Amino acid sequence: xxxxxxxxxxxxLLPLAAAAQTVPDPAPETSLQACLDRLEPAAxxxxxxxxxxxxxxxxxxxxxxxxxKLDIQPEFSTPIWDYLASLVDxxxxxxxxxxxxxxxxxxxxxxxxxxxxxxxxxxxxxVESNFGQNFGKYPLVQALGTLSCQGRRQTYFRxxxxxALRILQAGDVAPERLRGSWAGAFGHTQFMPTTYERLAVxxxxxxxxxxxxxxxDALASTANFLARAGWKDGLPWGFEVQLxxxxxxxxxxRRVRQPMARWRExxxxxxxxSPLPELDAPAGLMTPAGARGPAFLVxxxxxxxxxxxxxxSYGLAIAHLADRLRGGGPFVTPWPTDDAGLSRAExxxxxxxxxxxxxxxxxxxxxxxxxxxxxxxAERQRxxxxxxxxxxxxxxxxxxxxAEGLLSR
Length: 409
Ligand code: CA
Prior knowledge:
By secondary structure, this protein is mainly α. The chain folds into three domains: 1-235, no CATH class; 238-325, no CATH class; 344-407. 48% of the residues lie in helices and 5% in strands. A five-stranded antiparallel beta sheet has the order 4-6-7-3-5. The chain has a two-stranded antiparallel sheet with strand order 1-2. Helix 17 packs across helix 19 (395-407). The longest helix is centred in the middle third of the chain and has 17 residues, at 154-170. The chain binds calcium ion. Calcium ion binds at residues 202, 204, 206, 208-210, 214, 217.
């Protein structure tokens, strides 16, 4: 959650509590061990035993790559249609439906206990870790130890480091299993350590809260998170709507809620043309790509998703994936672009086309990393004559490369 995607998606914001923190971080530390030595009393005061502290920090070396991630300045901000095209693609919808079948019994019990439906829980799982296939590779104590002593926001990361050590101390997770994102999010649900401490639950009843090796614990923990964030069972997150001409989106937003009856008076209908539902629940009008793109009425449940990762685009990805898992279709109103985003399958195809032209892009993995971006820039320059192309790839580039490949045969 939170930090995990902040790296790749500049418009995703930091967790609110962390963002509100105003204590300046100490000066950069040259020696990790000297810094850790000075942190020991604070760790003790935070409930980390001397033995745990020494066992996990004595031989710790800094990992400079996490500092690079912390400071990365993306070359362009990701348009929401790119973000959603890769997070909610046919592959993920299919896998999600398979997960709903495979874990149906557990999900039904989770829904009864925590009051959050299966599709929503599975959607979070799919976006956070691709259904457990991507936990992140960073040893958590090393990543958090580095971030506690070097770079920005050290105070925040120290709190997470101490929490990670308390988790190890409690024996919930084996040290070698505690790996995650560069910023310390781990497991199926990508909880930060302090979130784990507050909200993880032992659902399979083995006495341990395990978000890494227990799918039931992870699914129930996600549901618990959403329930504690105010999820109301039986209500939708919201839905896509048709905006009648003359209704201004000026000053509207997720937090500007009005009664459903008021939206009905203004002439809003659901995207398929049907009337707004008879719900005694206020809703806000969200237009993430402006008035010409898809419009949504969002209810309080959207805020619960938003609290998992404070970005509207993230909330919409989860909400939309959940709808797709329930059998819903794509958004009715297209995004306001003539160059739509790429699914992961299309990103892999693009990478193959780039590799076939001699670009060294590394693994064909559907993740457009730095080497893919360099290749994309070069191809946009070559094909479109752009003088300062950015590293974005959409349908236009894919189509052009495909056609070129066919011509050259
Ligand atoms: Ca358990």
